[in-house]
């Protein structure tokens, strides 16, 4: 989905629904199904204000979140009905995106969920949205790399439609788990995201510098969907203090940093979108020009980006045996810029999974077993390179799906 002229998204759903009667306490998706006309009216107002893409109210309609709200075995039905509400509101006037949220779960050892369980949860939701006829998918407000990778893989394994990925970060460009935005754009554009960006957390003034930092690494259009400033508690209620004029004062700076998709998150409403529309005619989004990666190997761990010289050699090869963790500790303490691990069996891929979170250098995988290599790429939460004898017919699909550099 290449786009070099402004494309306008919608504004907030949650805070806007609270302005229209939702109490913010019960399951949002259940409330939406009980008050469909409220949601349709909101979405039509966004479209009238200028939104070209509206997000279906499916944010938390996944198995994990629904079961937390006491709703079981209704993922497919909920997503079908929620998408239909958005499609009825949009008609032929806007595209409808299937909205996908974080699960709030962590991989071992931080949590008790496996990566494949995450993929399975997301795939159930994605299949339902695909059946319901969404035009594209958006994975948003994500704070951890595994959740976003699982969601993106789920979309890619179910649909050929475009997918946008948005993380939430603080004003320094760091996520909750310490991942930097430059690493994130490197990982997710490598995995085939059609656009990458930031939403929620802070106001547009705090995000400009982060988009400027991302632009040298971005080979895809960028997305800005910030909050209407930082939330404040006034008379016991959460309010946002960035009115439309102030909110849109940074549009030119964002466009100059490569942002082509503009919208709003918490605290924004139709008036914010209307002013984006009014000012959009003068915006000229900078085309992606990833000069920092020109002639470099665009590798990344879960937290940092490493543009390496393409002449770098793999170095010492570690066997992914049961003692991989100890060998890895020693290699990470060395001065060599790359850590190289041989993975030739599924058991060795599992050994890598047990300690992949500790890898703080660019990873090079060595393998002559396509199945084991894919298993390792699936669980590794960064962007790795390959060294070995496997051919183009095997490596190219892995590069397209997992961002493998070879």
Could you explain the architecture of this structure?
The chain has 16 helices and 16 strands. The chain is an alpha/beta fold and 406 residues long. The strands form 4 sheets. It has an 8-stranded parallel sheet. It has a 4-stranded parallel sheet with strand order 13-14-15-16, covered by helices on one side. A two-stranded antiparallel ribbon has the order 8-9. The two termini are 25 Å apart. The mean pLDDT is 95.
* Poorly predicted runs of 5 or more residues: none
Number of helices: 16
**Terminus-to-terminus distance:** 25 Å
Q: Shape from CA axes?
A: globular
Largest sheet strand order: 1-10-7-6-5-4-3-2
**Proportion of β residues?**
15-25%
Could you give a short account of the major beta sheet?
A: 8 strands, parallel
Radius of gyration: 21 Å
Percentage of residues in helical conformation: 25-40%
Average pLDDT taken over every residue:
95
Give me the secondary-structure category.
alpha/beta
Kindly state the number of beta strands. Answer: 16
Please tag this protein with its features.
alpha/beta, globular, single chain, 8-stranded parallel β-sheet, 406 residues, 16 strands, 4-stranded parallel β-sheet, 40% helix
Topology:
Blueprint: E1 7-8, H1 14-18, H2 28-34, H3 36-49, E2 53-55, H4 63-68, H5 75-90, E3 95-100, H6 115-132, E4 136-142, H7 145-158, E5 163-167, H8 181-190, E6 195-199, H9 204-214, E7 222-225, E8 231-234, E9 237-240, H10 244-247, H11 251-256, E10 259-262, H12 270-280, E11 297-300, E12 305-308, E13 317-319, H13 324-332, E14 339-342, H14 346-355, E15 363-366, H15 370-379, E16 385-386, H16 392-402
Parallel strand pairs: 1-10, 2-3, 3-4, 4-5, 5-6, 6-7, 7-10, 13-14, 14-15, 15-16
Antiparallel strand pairs: 8-9, 11-12
Helix pairs in contact: 2-5, 3-5, 3-12, 5-6, 6-7, 14-15, 15-16
């Amino acid at each position: 989905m290449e786009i070099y002229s402004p494309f306008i998204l919608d504004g907030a759903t949650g805070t806007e629904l609270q302005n229209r009667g939702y109490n913010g306490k019960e399951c949002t998706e259940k409330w939406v199904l009980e008050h469909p006309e409220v949601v349709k009216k909101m979405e039509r107002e966004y479209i009238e204000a200028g939104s070209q893409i509206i997000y279906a109210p499916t944010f938390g309609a996944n198995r994990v979140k629904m079961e937390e709200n006491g709703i079981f075995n209704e993922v497919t039905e909920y997503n079908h009905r929620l998408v239909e509400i958005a499609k009825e509101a949009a008609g032929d006037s806007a595209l409808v995106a299937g909205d996908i949220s974080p699960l709030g779960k962590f991989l071992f050892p931080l949590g008790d969920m496996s990566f494949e369980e995450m993929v399975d949860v997301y795939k159930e939701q994605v299949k339902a949205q695909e059946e319901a006829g969404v035009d594209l998918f958006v994975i948003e407000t994500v704070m951890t790399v595994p959740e976003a990778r699982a969601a993106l893989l789920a979309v890619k394994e179910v649909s050929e439609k475009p997918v946008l990925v948005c993380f939430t970060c603080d004003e320094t460009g760091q996520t909750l788990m310490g991942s930097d935005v430059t690493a994130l754009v490197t990982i997710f554009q490598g995995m085939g995201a059609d656009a990458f960006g930031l939403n929620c957390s802070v106001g547009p003034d705090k995000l400009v510098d982060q988009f400027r930092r991302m632009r040298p690494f971005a080979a895809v259009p960028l997305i800005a969907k910030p909050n209407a400033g930082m939330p404040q508690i006034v008379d016991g209620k959460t309010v946002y203090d960035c009115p439309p004029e102030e909110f849109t004062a940074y549009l030119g700076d964002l466009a100059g940093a490569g942002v082509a998709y503009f919208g709003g998150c918490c605290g924004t409403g139709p008036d914010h979108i209307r002013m984006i529309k009014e000012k959009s005619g003068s915006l000229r989004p900078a085309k992606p020009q990833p000069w920092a990666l020109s002639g470099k190997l665009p590798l990344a761990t879960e937290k940092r980006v490493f543009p390496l010289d393409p002449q770098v050699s793999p170095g010492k090869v570690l066997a992914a045996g049961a003692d991989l963790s100890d060998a890895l500790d020693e290699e990470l303490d060395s001065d060599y810029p790359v850590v190289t691990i041989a993975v030739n069996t599924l058991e060795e891929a599992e050994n890598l999974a047990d300690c992949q979170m500790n890898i703080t250098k660019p990873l090079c995988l060595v393998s002559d077993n396509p199945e084991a290599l894919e298993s390792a790429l699936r669980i590794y939460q960064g962007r790795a390179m390959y060294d070995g004898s496997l051919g183009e017919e095997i490596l190219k699909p892995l590069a397209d799906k997992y961002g493998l550099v070879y």
